Amino acid sequence: MNWEQYIWGIIAAAIIIPLLSVAMKRIIHWFKTDKTEILLNVPEKALNTGTKFGLLHVRDGKDEVSDRGELSNKIHWFKKVDQQGNLKISMRYTRNLGFQFKCFADYKEISFGQLKEMLEEKGYLHVTRGEGKAERIWFILPDYPSCKTLDKIENNFIYPE
Q1: What angle do CA 55, 83, 57 make, to 5 degrees?
Q2: Total number of domains in the chain
Q3: What is the DSSP string of 69-135?
Q4: 76 lies in a domain?
Q5: Are 131 and 56 in contact (CB under 8 A)?
Q6: Residue 60 lies inside a defined structural domain of this protein
Q7: In terms of DSSP bridges, do strands 125-128 and 86-94 run parallel, antiparallel, or are they unpaired?
């Protein structure tokens, strides 16, 4: 083997090894995670006022579990499915931990009281102003389990498989 072949071998290894490492990390991630869809039905009147509905991914796992995921607090936005007020979102989470989340709505052209009344009529629970953005209303989905954080805040929870 001459020195040119040796150099080309080093270059190829420098390219292939990091690519394999990234590919393996992606494959492991897909095996350790799962994906679920969360459905929301909101009053059409709320959608007509420019109200945007979102989901706060609090963390994977429950607070009291030692192997819980790090605090995420990442916002995801629901997408409109049809004209009847159905919205959905796809969430990826660590399969063996499940995940905590809380839904919210950012409103502008409607009052807090009007939106709260609409959401409660649809069956949503614990509809409050909570913390954070001034024109944001938080609520719990009745069709999903819930859990309390160590700070006694109630969130929805998707249980691990």
Answers
A1: 5
A2: 1
A3: PPEEEEEEE-EE-STTSEEEEEEEEETTT-EEEEEEEE-SSS-HHHHHHHHHHTT-EEEE--SSSTT
A4: yes
A5: no
A6: yes
A7: unpaired
Both ends of the chain: CA-CA distance in Å? 54
Instruction: Report the run of H or E that residue 11 belongs to, with start and end.
Output: helix 3-32
Question: What average pLDDT does the structure give for the chain?
Answer: 87
| Phi, psi dihedrals of residue 29, rounded to the nearest 5° | -60, -45
Burial 9-26 (b: 16+ CB within 10 A, else e): eeeeeeeeeeeeeeeeee
Closest by Cα among 5, 3, 98, 104 to 51: 104
List the structure tokens of 154. 């109630």
| pLDDT tens-digit series, residues 22-66 | 667 666 655 677 899 999 999 888 888 889 999 999 999 888 877
**24 falls within a domain:** no
Domain assignment of residue 18, yes or no: no
For 71-104, write each residue's pLDDT tens digit.
889 999 999 999 888 999 999 998 888 999 999 9
Question: Which of 76, 72, 80, 111 minimizes the C-alpha distance to 91?
Answer: 76
Question: From CA 12, how far away is CA 25, in angstroms rounded?
Answer: 20
